[in-house]
Design goal:
Blueprint (H helix, E strand, L loop, with lengths): L2 E6 L3 H13 L4 E6 L1 H5 L5 E2 L13 E4 L6 H13 L7 E2 L4 E2 L4 E2 L4 E2 L4 E2 L4 E2 L4 E2 L4 E2 L4 E2 L4 E2 L4 E2 L4 E2 L4 E2 L4 E2 L4 E2 L4 E2 L4 E2 L8 E3 L4 E3 L7
Parallel strand pairs: 1-2, 1-4, 2-3, 5-8, 6-9, 7-10, 8-11, 9-12, 10-13, 11-14, 12-15, 13-16, 14-17, 15-18, 16-19, 17-20, 18-21, 20-22
Antiparallel strand pairs: 22-23
Length: 213
């Protein structure tokens, strides 16, 4: 059986996900790429970014491989794809530990070494990079991107389209609103309102967003 896989965006993140899938599903894979950069170089099986809803690809499993600078766009694409009836499976790396009570949404990607505790909810489009820990009864909102080494303590609620920087620790019983950004190594000790940027230990809330380079 040939497995059909389509990638929306195919930069560094897309290459990583492609490697994971090939390792997890050995055998014949037919890959297509919706990426303007690849299409401009006439890469085989590449198509303009905007063509991902074409009906000719209805039989493919889709993986949205957009990075942390495009989280709002990712949410938009998730909505379009679900409305169009496209297949958006989640991918869990075989080395990740997932409690059977955890709920994993459509299009979620979980990298190696992650640990997802009991009664965790990962909403559609969440990406957990290497070695992220999400403790019990926590909720990670739609299209949020958690960078390597993030630790989410118990009973935490994170809104949609958050970028949680590498090594961030979020303490118990806190809430982060939508579109929050944290810097590397930040320690979150209290709730953070939507649209905030937070850095440091002790945490410091900035009046302007950190620029994502």
């Amino acid at each position: 059986m040939i497995r059909k896989i389509a990638y929306i965006g195919f930069g560094e993140l897309g290459n990583q996900v492609s490697l994971f899938l090939k390792q997890a599903f050995p055998g014949d894979i037919n890959e297509v790429y919706f990426d303007d950069n690849l299409f401009s170089t006439q890469q085989q099986n590449s198509f303009p970014f905007s063509k991902y809803t074409d009906q000719q690809f209805d039989s493919y499993d889709f993986y949205i491989c957009l990075g942390y600078k495009n989280l709002e766009l990712k949410t938009k694409i998730l909505s379009e794809m679900k409305t169009a009836g496209k297949k958006l499976p989640h991918f869990i790396h075989p080395s990740a530990i997932i409690n059977p009570t955890a709920a994993i949404g459509d299009g979620v990607i979980i990298y190696p070494g992650c640990n997802i505790d009991q009664h965790v909810i990962l909403e559609d489009g969440v990406l957990l990079n290497n070695s992220v820990t999400v403790s019990h009864n926590s909720i990670i909102g739609k299209s949020s991107f958690l960078a390597p080494g993030v630790v989410i303590s118990g009973n935490v609620k994170i809104g949609k389209e958050n970028f949680i920087g590498s090594g961030t620790v979020v303490s118990n019983n806190t809430e982060l609103g939508d579109n929050v950004i944290t810097g590397i190594g930040t320690v979150i000790t209290k709730s953070v309102i939507a649209g905030s940027s937070v850095i440091g230990n002790p945490m410091k809330i900035l009046t302007e967003k950190i620029k994502l380079k």
